Amino acid sequence: MEESHEIFEHIQDIIDRNIPVVVEGKKDRKALEEFGVKRIIEKDAYYKLVDKLQNEKEVSLLVDLDKEGKKIYARLNDELSRRGVRINNKLRHFLFRETKIRQIEGLTRYMQ
Questions:
Q1: Higher-confidence residue: 44 or 85?
Q2: Which of 21, 24, 96, 106 has the fewest CB atoms within 10 Å, counting from its CB?
Q3: 108: which residues sit within 8 A by CB, 6+ positions away?
Q4: How far apart are the C-alpha atoms of 20 and 58, rounded to whole Å?
C-alpha cells in the first residue's frame, strides 16, 4: 500500500525534525504516539496555544479534516503565520487528498 509508506515518511520527517504537532484531543495524541511522535500538543485556548508555539520555527497542525477541524486549522494557521512560524502541511494535505481519513484518531486503524 503506497499510501501507508508515504504516511510513514511524513510522520518520520516530523519526528526527525522534532516538529511540534498540534492535535485536537487525547485520542489524536494517542494515535500519533503509537507512531513514535513525541512533541504533541493538544489544542488549548487559541491565545495559550499561539503563545506556546510562537517561538517555534515550524509547527504541524494535524487537526481533524472535518468542518470544525478546518476552522481550527484556518485560525491557527493565520495566527502562527503572522508570528513567523512556518506551518508544515505535508502530512495533513496528503491525508486530505490521498486518503479517506478525516479524523486523526483513525490513523492507526487506517494503517493496519
A1: 85
A2: 96
A3: 31, 34, 35
A4: 8
Gap between the Cα atoms of 94 and 62, Å rounded: 11
Which contiguous run of DSSP H or E holds residue 60? Answer: strand 58-61
Long-range CB pairs of 34-42, under 8 A, 24+ apart, other chains included: 34/108, 35/8, 35/11, 35/107, 35/108, 36/11, 37/11
Please give the order of strands across the beta sheet that includes 40-42: 40-42, 21-23, 58-61, 86-88
CB 41 within 8 A of CB 22: yes
Which pLDDT does position 3 carry in this prediction? 83
The CATH class of the 2-111 domain is alpha beta
Quick one: pLDDT band at residue 108, thresholds 50, 70, 90?
Answer: confident
